[in-house]
């Protein structure tokens, strides 16, 4: 059984062909940045991206004939519960227009999957897109009337890490409680209870720990003072582009920050340790949201290759539950695995309604 996965990024698209659970081909296909900039919006890039991918497949001698399913990284969708969704006309149209208001190359994931499925046959899916919202009601209110919390997280990698760890324990994800972190360019810290991600931080809204390019949570009064005389767009950029390591040191490279710290740069050393400290605080908060009933603390993402980071988190948090490290990410495998579960009949494909899973309280 062949599954073809596509994961569009800003100037490249990751592709992978998976057969019976094994990756038989993978490539990060580069796209010309100047050419991408010529198109009207993200969705306008679709024909060029597809052409570039097809050229790469042809060069590599890879055929998509006989592929059972095509799966794309979801993007542009309204808040929905986790799972695997069959791409229908409504889901496709929301991906094309970016119905959630967040413009991101992931919008092209459903579009590419659907185009390939139409051309080669087979079904098309998205799995646990970034817009997964399974918050418990207690996590939604804030101290300002009319301002509510929502989340944007690395849902795909977070949930797949939890599913795999549960399997390693001989259990189902739906029968476990986990605190799951993705620690990379952005940092997600989330609480999973019986198969639902009931709380977490909004990584595009300025919540959670600081990260290489993100400011994380900051005091509101201090931020308001900081905003004086500044453009709103520049302040917003602190949430996703110019905060964190970039704001302090002018780099988003964690390896450079570590190196500078080891060479005696006290600011770099403090910044690195402060980021880890903030991660551990949010792990503690997520453990509290689970009432201390935690089967494991799971760490994924590129920075988890750092033994120092994992060691510090273990020292601070292993009294809560065992800490397990899954360095890097397996987004392609996660998309294929979610698709495989549907094809095998282990799960039913969900239908995208286009109605946000939560739209306010009745008071």
From TrEMBL:
Catalytic function, reaction form: butanoate + ATP = butanoyl phosphate + ADP
Q: Which GO terms describe its cellular component?
A: cytoplasm
Documented EC number(s): 2.7.2.7
Per its record, what are the GO molecular function terms?
Answer: acetate kinase activity; ATP binding; butyrate kinase activity
Q: What is the lineage of its organism?
A: Bacteria, Bacillati, Bacillota, Clostridia, Lachnospirales
Looking up Pfam families in the UniProt record yields: Acetate_kinase
Q: Does the keyword ATP-binding apply?
A: yes
Q: Which SUPFAM superfamilies match?
A: Actin-like ATPase domain
What protein does this entry describe? Answer: Probable butyrate kinase
Q: Per its UniProt record, what NCBIfam families does this chain match?
A: butyr_kinase (TIGR02707), PRK03011.1-5 (NF002834)
Which biological process, per GO, is one annotated for this protein? acetate metabolic process
- InterPro entries given for it? Aliphatic_acid_kin_short-chain, Aliphatic_acid_kinase_CS, ATPase_NBD, Butyrate_kin
Give compartment(s). Cytoplasm
The highest taxon in the source lineage is Bacteria
* Entries under PANTHER family matching the protein: ACETATE KINASE, BUTYRATE KINASE 2-RELATED
Report keywords, A-Z: ATP-binding, Cytoplasm, Kinase, Nucleotide-binding, Transferase
């Amino acid at each position: 059984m062949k599954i073809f996965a596509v994961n569009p990024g800003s100037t490249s698209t990751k592709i992978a062909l998976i057969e019976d659970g094994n990756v038989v081909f993978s490539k990060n296909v580069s796209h010309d940045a100047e050419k991408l900039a010529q198109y009207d919006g993200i969705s306008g890039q679709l024909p060029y991206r597809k052409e570039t991918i097809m050229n790469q497949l042809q060069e590599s001698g890879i055929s998509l004939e006989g592929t059972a399913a095509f799966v794309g990284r979801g993007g542009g969708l309204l808040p929905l519960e986790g799972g695997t969704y069959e791409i229908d006309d409504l889901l496709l149209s929301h991906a094309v227009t970016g119905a959630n208001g967040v413009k991101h190359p992931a919008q092209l994931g459903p579009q590419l999957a659907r185009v390939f499925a139409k051309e080669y046959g087979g079904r098309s899916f998205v799995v646990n897109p970034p817009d997964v919202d399974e918050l418990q009601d207690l996590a939604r209110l804030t101290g300002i009337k009319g301002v509510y919390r929502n989340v944007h997280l690395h849902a795909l990698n977070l949930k797949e890490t939890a599913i795999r760890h549960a399997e390693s324990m001989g259990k189902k994800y739906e029968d476990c409680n986990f605190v799951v972190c993705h620690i990379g360019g952005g940092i997600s810290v989330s609480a999973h209870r019986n198969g639902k991600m009931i709380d977490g931080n909004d990584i595009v809204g300025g919540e959670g720990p600081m990260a290489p390019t993100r400011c994380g949570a900051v005091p509101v009064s201090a931020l308001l003072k900081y905003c004086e005389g500044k453009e709103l767009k520049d302040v917003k950029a602190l949430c996703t582009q110019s905060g964190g390591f970039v704001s302090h040191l002018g780099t988003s490279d964690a390896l450079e920050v570590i190196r500078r710290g080891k060479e005696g740069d006290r600011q770099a050393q403090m910044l690195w340790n402060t980021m880890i400290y903030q991660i551990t605080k949010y792990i503690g908060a997520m453990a509290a949201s689970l009432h201390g009933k935690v089967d494991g603390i799971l760490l994924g993402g590129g920075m988890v290759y750092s033994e120092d980071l994992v060691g510090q988190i273990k020292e601070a948090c292993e009294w809560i539950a065992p800490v397990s490290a899954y360095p890097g990410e397996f987004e392609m495998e996660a998309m294929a695995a979610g698709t495989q579960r549907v094809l095998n009949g282990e799960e039913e494909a969900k239908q995208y309604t286009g109605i946000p899973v939560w739209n306010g309280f009745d008071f």
